[in-house]
Amino acid sequence: MYGEAMLSFAPLQVRVSTPRIELVGATDELLEQLQPLVRDGKANADPAPYDDPISLYEEDPAVRVHKWLQGIWRGRGHAAPGSWRLNFAVVLDSQPVGMQDLIGENFDTFGTVMSFSWLSTDIRHRGIGTEMRQAILHLAFEGLKATEAASDAFVDNAGSNGVSRALGYTENGVDWATRRGEVGLLQRWRLTRDDWLPHRRTDIRLQGVGDCAAALGIA
């Protein structure tokens, strides 16, 4: 089983399983397996998908990996009921191929979450991105009882915006951000629990959510 060396850290015990993929708490073992994808730039895309600052835009591969790992490790140490980030490796056919994160901001007050993801260039355009989002939304709404999920993407990010639209999100305004120092327009999306329910799947399994919620201080 992935992550046996860190099973005492409850957020790394969480598993979200669909018929196609599994989201597995991003242990150091899994990060090591994902490291070549980050080093080779396979987490990136054209047009640039992320707003600044982000380690995945670092030009030097060694610096890119170093800062990427630092950010994940830093996040493990700053988990509280109102602010947390759960990092998952996306496992396809027993191979880690990307990451899917769930982020709680003011979760103890509003029950709101955001998602962030990347997928290796080798396996895009196969519906895996949609499967990842459905899995993380199931964890948010079914497992952690979130009330609302948010997402955003640059307006030219057809993949991310298409997933949001297909899964029932509604447009929630626009905003400006920079990517690689250049100004771009972000489309914001909002998905309430009531809007998610018609899209709820019955073939997604959750594991370890209770212990994770307790560790984060989520009632």
From TrEMBL:
Keyword field contains Transferase: yes
Domain N-acetyltransferase positions: 43-190
GO molecular function, one term: acyltransferase activity, transferring groups other than amino-acyl groups
InterPro entries found in the cross-reference section: Acyl_CoA_acyltransferase, GNAT_dom
Key words, A-Z: Transferase
Taxonomy, superkingdom: Bacteria
SUPFAM superfamilies, alphabetized: Acyl-CoA N-acyltransferases (Nat)
Name of the protein in its database record: RimJ/RimL family protein N-acetyltransferase
Organism: Spelaeicoccus albus
